[in-house]
Amino acid sequence: MAHRTPARESQVVRTRRDGYPARVHQPKRESASMGIMDFIRQGTQEMMVARPDSAKQYIVYKHPEQTIPKFSQLTVDADEAAVFFRDGALVGVLRTAGAAQRHTLDTGNIPFLSNLVDSFTGGNIFVTDLYFVTMRPFRGARFGGALPPIKDPELEITLTPRIFGEYAWQITHPDRFIVSYLGMGGQQSNEQVERWITTKFMNAVKKSLPQFIIRQKVEVQHLAAYHDEIGQMFMQKCEDLSEIGVQFLELGDFSINFDADDQKRLEEAQARYADLKVKKRAKDELGGGNFMNYAAGEAMLGAGQGMAQGGGEGGGGGAMQGGAGLGMGFAMANMFAQNMQPQQGQPQQPPPQQPPPQPVQAGGGMVQCPSCSATVAPGKFCAECGSSLVPQPKPCPSCSTVAAPGAKFCAECGTNMQG
Hints:
alpha+beta, 3-stranded mixed β-sheet, Tetrahydropterin Synthase, Chain A, rod-shaped, 419 residues
C-alpha cells in the first residue's frame, strides 16, 4: 500500500451543510524571536554593554548590536557619554553612573528607555542605535600653514608668514555632535574629525592676524613679541561651534616664521630701513646746523659700505682697506656720539657773554673819540666834545640796515660804513 502524505491542515477546507465553509484550523505560528526569548530566560539579563578597550581611542564608537536585552548592565566611563537613538531620532543621553557603578537598563530606572522597548518580544528587548562619544578635552591638536600675504606697515614689503602651534578642543554636547555633524550614516575616523575642527580654527587665525597687524601697526617681523595678545585674539575670534556641540578651549604654544625666500627679503629690507634711518638722523642734524654730526654720519655710512663691498680684487688689499674703513667708521661713530650727547657728569655751560665794544685805543693809554677824532683820556664820554666814547650802531646809508658798532662795511649790502 502506497504511503500517502496527509494533506496539510492549512489546505483542508470542509463545507457545512448550509453551504458556508467550515472553520479552518491554523497551526500556531512559531515566534521568530524564540531564540532571543530562550536566551533571556536562561539568564542573559546580566548582559554587559560597554565600549571595548580596543575602541577607547575613538572619538565616536557605535555599539555593533541594535538589540539589547532588558536589565543589561551598561558601563559609561567618566570621560564619555552614551547616546541612544531609534529610527534616526534622539532618545536620550547617559553619563557615568559613578565609580564602580553601572546603569541597569530598565524602564523603571531610566524612563526614556520606554521609547526603545520592542513590543514584539514582550518588552524584554530594547532596539536602539547606541553611540559612545568621548568628552574629555583633546589637547595637543596641531594646526599650521601659510597665512594670507601681509604688507609690513614699516618696511612696506609684502610677506607671507607661516604659523604653527597647538590648541585644545572638547565635545560638550554629544547628542548635537552626532545629529548636527557626524550624522547617522556611519563613523568617521579621528583624523577626519580633527581635520575639520582644525580647518575651522585656522579660518579664525587667517582672518584675525592681518586685522591685528593693521590696527596695531605692528611690524611683521616683531609679531613674536605679541605672543599673548595674539593668542587671546585667536580664542576670541574662533568660530562658535556650539551648534554641533564643540568648543575651543585654549591655545597652546605657537610660532610665526617665514620661508627662506621671505626671510631673505625681510633681512634686506631691514638693512635698507636701518640705512635710511641713519641718513635721516644725519639730515636732521644738518637741518639743525650741526655740520660735524652730519659729516660724521656720512663718513660712517661710507666706511660701512666700503667695508661691506671689499677693497677690490686683491685679497690682501681688500682686507687692508676693509680694516681701514672699519677703523674710520668706528672713529666717526665715536665723534658722532660725542657731538650728539653732552659729556656725562658735566653740566651744560651757557655761552660766554661778549664784552661791549671798546673805543679805538691810541698811544700812551689814550683813546680816540669816534665823533671829533680828538685824543682824550679813557672814559665814557669825550673830554673835548662830550660825545660817547663807546661806538654806537648806525644804519647803513644805502639799505638802512643797522650795522654792528664799529663795523666798517654793511653786512647786508657791503656799503662802506666809514665813508
